[in-house]
């Protein structure tokens, strides 16, 4: 069961998801026993690989589909279609309508009570850099501008809950960074509660007050970005927060897995505690640095965060070195020494589903 320890809130506050499951047909279970609480005004990012049920969960929250089991309530009430703002992966705009009319479309639908708040609309246009484009048609906009229109349309009804389903997946990195900053500003100024789905670890960690990690239809960890980086609860949580690579290393005499992020290693000038020695086999250029494959010989030792010493089998190690270091390039065949801090060494059980502590229990960690 996916559970969450929270600051106490009344069940009439924020979004509560309890025991939610979703099955299609008789055999396809997409979501299993999801429990999650989003406090009023909180922005939670949801990350996971494709097929983990992230988008399905958003559709259930928005009442676009019904759960097979469990309940979803906001401020103690069941949600109905139209009560939630929804930003899709790609903006679906009406080609014959202007930017202004596309944004205002939800407030002109039957069932909406109240008038258009022109001052609020002007704020949305300003923050999303759409001022001056109000009369343009979608065909006259860039992909990023179209997505900004979709965001404004999702917010125009001032719903307390807004859902973002990978809204930046179809725009380039420069535009993505710009829109991400706009979303942060919108959330800060208007204070809506939000769930934001992404497969991008940097996006998840930068935007979320907390991050929910999903795997195979289950929420496997929910915590602050800092805590998830420091204490991944499963090997999948470690993988999802380990760009560009996670080392999953074999230990002599143990069925457990030692996981170390490639970014956790530092150059080491001399032999010493937690220093590994190996030969460079290959190098791959990555944005901001180089990723090296280093061949380790058997019998090398590391001290982990419990103070225990473990022994590694012979295997390859991935080491990331930022381009800030000079010289950047190790030569193929060159012997290198790298060190890693004990607190960056994570042990997981044989299944990888939970953190392991060798000769101690998590309660004593």
Give the H and E element order.
EEEHEEEHHHEHEHEEHHEEEEEEEEEE
What is the overall silhouette? globular
What portion of residues is helical? 10-25%
Count the beta strands. Answer: 20
- Return residue spans where pLDDT drops below 50 for at least 5 consecutive residues: 1-9
**N→C terminal distance:** 22 Å
Beta content comes to 25-35%
Give me the number of helical elements: 8
Report mean pLDDT, rounded to a whole number.
89
Spatial order of the strands forming the largest sheet:
6-7-8-3-9-10
What structural class do the secondary elements suggest? alpha+beta
Largest sheet: 6 strands, mixed
Query: What's the alpha carbon Rg, rounded to whole Å?
Result: 24 Å
Report on the structure:
The structure is a single chain. The protein is an alpha+beta fold and 365 residues long. It has eight helices and 20 strands. The chain has helices at residues 54-61, 99-104, 118-127, 143-155, 173-190, 201-207, 225-230, 235-240; strands at 15-24, 28-38, 43-47, 69-74, 77-78, 85-87, 161-165, 193-198, 210-215, 218-223, 246-250, 257-261, 266-267, 275-286, 289-296, 301-303, 309-311, 315-322, 335-339, 346-348. The protein has a six-stranded mixed sheet, sandwiched between helices. It has a five-stranded antiparallel sheet with strand order 13-19-14-15-18, with no helix packed on it. A hairpin with a 2-residue loop joins strand 4 (69-74) and strand 5 (77-78). The relative contact order is 0.12. Mean pLDDT is 89; it is low at 1-9.
């Amino acid at each position: 069961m996916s559970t969450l320890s929270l600051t106490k809130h009344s069940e009439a506050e924020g979004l509560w998801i309890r025991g939610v499951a979703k099955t299609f047909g008789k055999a396809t279970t997409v979501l299993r026993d999801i429990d999650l609480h989003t406090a009023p005004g909180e922005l939670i990012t949801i990350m996971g690989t494709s097929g983990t049920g992230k988008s399905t969960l958003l559709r259930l929250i928005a009442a676009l589909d019904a759960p097979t089991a469990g309940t979803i309530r906001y401020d103690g009430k069941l949600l109905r279609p139209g009560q939630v703002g929804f930003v899709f992966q790609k903006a679906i705009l009406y080609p014959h309508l202007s930017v202004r009319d596309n944004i205002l479309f939800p407030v002109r639908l039957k069932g909406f009570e109240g008038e258009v708040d022109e001052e609020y609309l002007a704020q949305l246009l300003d923050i999303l850099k759409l001022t001056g484009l109000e009369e343009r048609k979608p065909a006259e906009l860039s992909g990023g501008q179209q997505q900004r229109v979709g965001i404004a349309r999702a917010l125009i009804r001032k719903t307390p809950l807004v859902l973002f389903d990978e809204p930046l997946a179809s725009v380039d990195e420069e535009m993505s960074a710009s829109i991400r900053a706009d979303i942060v500003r919108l959330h800060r100024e208007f204070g809506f509660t939000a769930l934001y789905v992404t497969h991008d670890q940097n996006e998840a960690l930068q935007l979320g007050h907390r991050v929910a990690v999903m795997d195979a239809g289950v929420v496997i960890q929910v915590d602050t970005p800092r805590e998830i980086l420091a204490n991944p609860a499963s090997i999948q949580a470690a993988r999802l927060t380990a760009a560009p690579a996670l080392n999953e290393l074999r230990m002599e005499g143990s069925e457990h897995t030692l996981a170390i992020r490639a970014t956790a290693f530092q150059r080491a000038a001399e032999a010493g505690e937690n220093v590994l020695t190996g030969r460079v086999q290959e190098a791959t250029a990555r944005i901001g640095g180089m990723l090296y494959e280093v061949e380790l010989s058997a019998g090398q030792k590391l001290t982990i965060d419990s103070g225990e010493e473990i022994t590694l089998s012979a295997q390859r190690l991935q080491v990331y070195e930022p381009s800030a270091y000079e010289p950047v390039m190790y030569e193929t065949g060159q012997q290198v020494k790298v060190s890693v801090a004990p607190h960056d060494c994570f042990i997981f059980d044989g299944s990888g589903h939970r953190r392991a502590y060798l000769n101690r229990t998590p309660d004593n960690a």
